[in-house]
Amino acid sequence: MSLTIDELVMPDALDAPGGDDFAEYATLSNDVERHTLGTDLLAMGLHEMLSEYVSTASRTRRHLVARHGDVMVGRAMITTRPLTPEAGAYLMVDVTPARRRRGIGTALLAAAEALAVELGAPVLKVAVAHSVRDGGERVEPPTGFGDLPADDPGVRFLRAHGYALEQVTRISLLDADRLRDLAAAGVPDDYRLLTWAGPTLDQWIDELAALRTRMSTDAPSAGMVMLPDPWDAGRVHEHDERIASSSRTMLTAAVEHVPSGVLAGFTEIVVSEGGAVAVQEDTLVLTDHRGRRLGMLLKRVNAEQLVATFPSVEAVVTWNAEENRPMLDVNEQMGFREIGREAGWQKHVL
Ligand SMILES: CC(C)(COP(=O)(O)OP(=O)(O)OC[C@H]1O[C@@H](n2cnc3c(N)ncnc32)[C@H](O)[C@@H]1OP(=O)(O)O)[C@@H](O)C(=O)NCCC(=O)NCCS
């Protein structure tokens, strides 16, 4: 039976035409990640996945599916940023574990790369989960922080296709019981704490847009090509609306520097309706305000908000670059433990 590769257009809704194909696509993606990490703690709900996989004004997503006859055996996703095309494209390729080593991944990657190049991407990037196994041959990024097992299928595949490992990211988890035990933290003079659940409070939209823009340049990116990714109030609204309309709640803790009226930092956690694992998203403290333990303060306060608002949540998961010592220090002190690894890979095509 021959292999076909076709574009999959995202449906308007799960129950709209194309919804069944999307469900098969989403299940394949969750199954592959579960197979790699040995846990389904990170599995995304269909509703949530659809809201992340559609294109927005600042992020274009195209999807390819490989089929053997009627059976979906692989998928690829190509993500580009219309506001910063020079930052290139992110590619993702997944092949059903039972159908590997038959060239399906190579065929999907070639189609995904061709589409990215056609879209003008000068650099191709991959951010993908890898298994955590100690021992055996290792692969290290040039930063010297973190490593991966050389025999992980994704590692072998990407190296065979000319991608360079640039960054290793730790995926770690904290049980909610540990969050309940965290001691309250003091607020330094001149600062005021703010917390809210749901969309960004109107009065802080512009400040939040500025903090999110800084996130794109201040988070360590190792050798990955990164450009300032501009946010404005409209983009914050679109982002918040997309989260709310996919049965997710964003919990934010922020700290205002009262003398200047500037938001000095923020952190946010996203919780899916009925989900057991909440996702730690961005955390940032502006350079001028670092060194006052505001990062720890923000995370503790948002943890309090999480356990109070969503008592059924069992754990929080977070992603941190291995070279991001300040953030790992905070998370290790809180009790986060590693459950997997993700890596940033890159290939220049122009
Ligand atoms: C990586 C992945 C997409 C490969 O899919 P695939 O259909 O097996 O890919 P191919 O058959 O085209 O394999 C191509 C090459 O990858 C390498 N490779 C993949 N798995 C391997 C393994 N278990 N052992 C040794 N080499 C392996 C080999 O170089 C292989 O060529 P070969 O079979 O001629 O030796 C698949 O393992 C997968 O879905 N992994 C999880 C997601 C992931 O890591 N994606 C990375 C790209 S974003």
Q: Please compute the radius of gyration using only Cα atoms.
A: 20 Å
Share of helical residues: 25-40%
What is the succession of H and E elements? Answer: EHHEEEHEEEHEHEHHEEEHEHE
Chain oligomer state: single chain
Number of strands: 14
Estimate the global geometry from the Cα principal axes. globular
Low-confidence stretches: none
Overall residue-averaged pLDDT value:
95
Give structural notes:
The protein is of the alpha+beta class and 350 residues long. It folds into two domains: 3-170, Aminopeptidase; 175-339, Gcn5-related N-acetyltransferase (GNAT) (Aminopeptidase). It has nine helices and 14 strands. The strands form two sheets. Strands 1-2-3-4-5-14-8-13-12-11-10-9 form a twelve-stranded mixed sheet, sandwiched between helices. Helix 6 (205-218) crosses helix 7 (233-244). Bound molecules: coenzyme A (COA). The site of coenzyme A has 21 residues, from helix 1, strand 4, helix 3, strand 5 and helix 4. Coenzyme A is lined by residues 32, 36, 92-95, 100-106, 126, 128, 153-154, 156-158, 160.
Question: What are its keywords?
Answer:
single chain, 350 residues, alpha+beta, Aminopeptidase, 2 domains, twelve-stranded mixed sheet, two-stranded antiparallel sheet, 9 helices, 32% strand, binds coenzyme A, acyltransferase activity, transferring groups other than amino-acyl groups, Bact_Acetyltransf, GNAT_dom, transferase
